Amino acid sequence: MTSDGFENLLHERRVFAPSDEFKAQANAQPSLYGAADADRLAFWEDQAGRLHWDRKWDLPLDWTDAPFAQWFVGGKLNVAVNCVDRHVNDGYGEQVAIHFEGEPGDTRAITYQQLQDEVCQAANALVELGIEAGDRVAIYLPMIPEAVISMLACARLGAAHSVIFGGFSAEALRSRINDAQAKLVITADGGYRRGKAAALKPAVDEAVTETPSVNNVLVVERTGQEVEWTQRDLRWKDLVGRQSTTHVPQAFDSEHPLFILYTSGTTGSPKGILHTSGGYLTQTAYTHYNVFDFKANTDVFWCTADIGWITGHSYVVYGPLANRATQVLYEGTPDSPHQGRWWEIIEKYGVTTLYTAPTAIRTFSKWGREIPQEFDLSSLRLLGSVGEPINPEAWMWYRSVIGGNRCPIVDTWWQTETGAIMISPLPGITECKPGSAMRPLPGICAKIVDDAGVPVGNSEGGYLVLDEPWPAMLRGIWGDPQRYIETYWSRWPGVYFAGDGAKYDSQGAMWLLGRVDDVMNISGHRISTAEVESALVSHPATAEAAVVGANDETTGQAIVAFVILREHAEISESTVDDLRAHVAREIGPIAKPRQVLIVKELPKTRSGKIMRRLLRDVAENRSLGDMSTLADPAVMGLIADGLSAPGAVED
Ligand code: PRX
């Protein structure tokens, strides 16, 4: 656990209460906590009432087969109908659902009626390709409307989508397609990033050479760049464009699979996190409404996450659309064509609610306050943060420079596995402390426990656990029920261990302290040390590799790799660059190490376990901590020698 981070927060005494004005109009009032405490399951049943059910559930929760939960047992609904058709039926067909802003400046305003038409067309196209309820569809797209439409088309048919982040490599794509046995891949020729057309289809072409389950590749034309074409490939424009805009939806069981999303764990192979329908949609809608104080008639919501991550699933697609949001979808990077692009978008669309990651906030603060100050940000009324601990200084910058000292900030803690926000202030109720996610939401049971699983008291730290099931919880790891039990439910009986360290302050507010396992958090994205190590070891020059996440001012953590080369490996000036590029090829540019340090030895315990703690000390230039369990203390000297040797470069 990082003692450094904790030092900071011990000194953090600032507290910000919501204004009387905000309080008076807030969706969430203090009675929400009381209602959930009085009868948690009845509270969740009330929340499920936010949705349209074709058949009401018989039982709110079946936990008899724990840790395999069933929520709203016997209920039936169609998730896509809840996110689209019902708003049209309620008379809001003309309301804009999505303000799409392409990076080159092209725009599209898509109303709920148009969204319904396009989702139906896409669903009909999928039916024509033989996709049925229960199938899996891989989606590998840039941030364009077709990404949302594809996800909803799958949901409408009861086919589980597996969205793979467009920054992942062909190899990562292939392994995910094969794990889920996807029948169809939906992709695009490319997308715009940093002013250039970045190709996507070649990675799919490479991946599908070894994915026997894939029958077709459906290709959206976004950039118009040249792509290879095979018999398996179909053009979105042709196939989807000629379909009927009507499609009769079917209602699915509350526990019908909605999607699989792969995330890193402590081993080399990513886990397919499985989410189902009724409980997931209930909690995403509930949290979007209360945490973001969402007002369907006046708010313009913008969650900047890519749909390749859980935040994009829950707070670009399902939560906001279930609540009839008008939202912004932006394709590109924050610095294209200039560093004020986000603020320009906020001014242009009158964005009221911005939900983003600390790494972005730190980057903007580095670029300087003069940039956002050139734009009118007065439409903003609420700010959110997600993905990693937000350091108090970044929080204060966000509050004053972006929020004009008037917007509450909700620091929201949750995970791919939890499906929706779990710990967060409620903006009209909670006093906020910069850097704290404050307390579990009504209906959520989270605690901090010690090694023995005993809850700790105020001013004490330990492990964050969830000790009651929640509606949006993962239902398992795709194809591996045993791994699900072992990974999440075996450290303390009957309790979900989240992998994070946390601490209560003297008043009982929660402070998240980062991962306690071998998972790194790079710009709010999870990468496991084991994944990067396997990628490094798959390079012919590598004998052994150890990877740590070192503190980084901008990205939160950065990947630092220690590599022992094979004896006969040819070392050249470019070895370090080759290794970095190799990792980017194997996993994706996001996993490219910031530094590769060529060393002669790695510090190990007598039982052969790599002592990452010491490597982290080296990576962060700290004096070395306790080395008493090190089998051979001399290796740290060898590492230090290695650091001064040629090849140990950093860029
Ligand atoms: O370590 C926590 C960190 O991100 C992890 C979950 O990552 P992922 O599944 O990729 O989901 C990210 C978006 C929900 C957590 O185990 N994390 C997420 N939000 C916060 C956070 N750490 C501190 N504060 C947060 N608000």
What does this structure look like?
The chain has 651 residues and is of the alpha/beta class. It has a domain at 539-650: GMP Synthetase, Chain A, domain 3 (2-Layer Sandwich), CATH 3.30.300.30. Helices cover 32% and strands 23% of the residues. It has 21 helices and 30 strands. β9 (190-193) and β10 form a beta hairpin. The protein is globular, with a radius of gyration of 24 Å. The chain starts with a helix and ends in a 7-residue tail after the last helix. Adenosine-5'-monophosphate-propyl ester (PRX) binds at residues 263, 310-311, 386-389, 411-416, 437, 498-500, 512, 514-515, 521, 526. Adenosine-5'-monophosphate-propyl ester binds next to α12, β20, β24 and β25.
Topology overview:
Layout: H1 3-10, H2 20-25, H3 31-38, H4 40-48, E1 59-62, E2 70-73, E3 76-77, H5 79-92, E4 96-101, E5 107-111, H6 112-128, E6 136-140, H7 145-157, E7 160-163, H8 170-180, E8 184-188, E9 190-193, E10 196-199, H9 201-207, E11 216-220, E12 233-235, H10 236-239, E13 252-253, E14 257-263, E15 271-276, H11 278-291, E16 300-303, H12 310-322, E17 326-330, H13 341-349, E18 353-356, H14 358-367, H15 370-373, E19 382-386, H16 392-402, E20 409-412, E21 446-449, E22 461-466, E23 476-477, H17 481-489, E24 496-504, E25 510-515, E26 519-522, E27 525-528, H18 529-537, E28 542-552, E29 556-565, H19 575-586, E30 595-598, H20 612-619, H21 634-644
The structure holds adenosine-5'-monophosphate-propyl ester.
